[in-house]
Write a structure and sequence with these properties.
Layout lengths: L1 H15 L6 H5 L1 H26 L7 E10 L2 E2 L4 E6 L7 E4 L5 E7 L3 E7 L6 E6 L11 E8 L17 E6 L4 E4 L1 H20 L1
Parallel strand pairs: 1-8, 7-9
Antiparallel strand pairs: 1-2, 1-5, 3-4, 3-6, 6-7, 9-10
Helix pairs in contact: 1-3
Amino acid sequence: EIGGLFLFCIVYNNFTFTNQIPILLRHNFHTLYLLLSFFIFLLSINYSFCSSSHGDTTQKYFLAMKGQVVIGKKYLSKAFIRIYADSSSTPIQKLESDIEGYVAFQLPLQKLYIIKISKQGFVTKIITVDAHLPKSKETGNYYFEFALELFENIEGLDVSMLKNPIAKVFFNTFTKKFDYDFNYTAKINNDLKKMYHNYDVL
């Protein structure tokens, strides 16, 4: 509106008070003003569109993950995979494993994820993925593969320890890759062995 008023003043000052302007043009001054205002309106729309396009904050790089869900030596299809980001209670992705137990997805970097893998009649397992990394290393996509075994939920089996993650994935600044937190894995392995022993007994 300011731009339209500015042009209106220029046109009005240059033409209306000048005897050299043809009378016909002065009579059509209102039409000229409307055309100029419409032109400015179109320019403003174009500017807004360009600004919103350049302001796009779409994530540039990802951690691509591929996993296989199994039971013993068999593939487990149609296992449910729910992914949560940064302590949100609503999953950002919901997927199912395919006929060979595979599932693949992408995680935007610089977030913390909880991945819950479950199936009716089976015990749910959790993996956490810390996708934070130094900005200097955010130069491309990363890739990580995992395998996870589910087992049937058996009455009398204490699976309370599985409320905690069975594995944690993080960015290893030494190898410059995503990897398991082996200190955490070593800590939880003893409890897992006891639970699996009780599972075999039952």
